[in-house]
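Suppose a colleague, Dr. K., hands you the sequence of a protein chain of 251 amino acids and asks what its three-dimensional shape might be. Before reaching for any lab equipment, you can write down a predicted structure in token form. Begin with the sequence itself:
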Amino acid sequence: MKNILALVLLIAPMAFAPDNVRTRFKPSAGYNHVAVAPGSFGAYLQTLRLKPAGTHTRTYTGSIARTDPYTAAVIDMSIGPQDLQQCADAVMRLRAEYLYQQANYKAIAFNFTSGFKCDYIHYANGYRYVNERWVLRGKKDYSYLNFLRYMNLVFSYAGTLSLQNELKPVTNPNDIKAGDVFIKGGSPGHCFIVMDVTENAAHKKQFLLAQSFMPAQNIQVLQNGSPWFSLDTIADIPYGELVNFKYLKRF
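The predicted structure, expressed as tokens, is then:
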């Protein structure tokens, strides 16, 4: 009995070990993880739970996404039943989820393409968006379900153009960090979010990228032969030309 108990205690930590980008994707030979500040947005991204290895990337309808061949992993986060959570929406969702978990509600705000500032505080306090203004229509509700309703509103009226204008440019290529966003607004525009960064002795960086796409799909960690990308090795993934530091921005 003691031997069985000891075996269970040995196996249990392995069975419940976290499965995230830090644990699943080891750096390339000669590279080491770039440290992130505890509690930062980058640290949050690196602790997001992944679905089991081999999981397909699926659209909001449940069908396998056309981007599935580029799947290195799938982030275990809901998509919703509508064609809303696409590329920029996924980035905004990740940022808002991070702030919501910290109860930093005042920081949750995104601009619509029209320029209207859609802040979570108004929505959670019962206000609703009507013709470019807030109108009090309901009761205070800071529940997670209502947070997701707020995000659907954001997804409906914001996009790559508005998000690109909100973010701050990163001017130094060697300063790339987890949480940075490669983004080019347009119709269509696209964006990728940096999930993790590694560096070698020559200070060359490699990074993991994640995206959603059209139609709305799971947020996927990308690969093209390897999940680790650099500006020298980025290849034929959809909108791969955006992985260029002139498109790199930060919250």
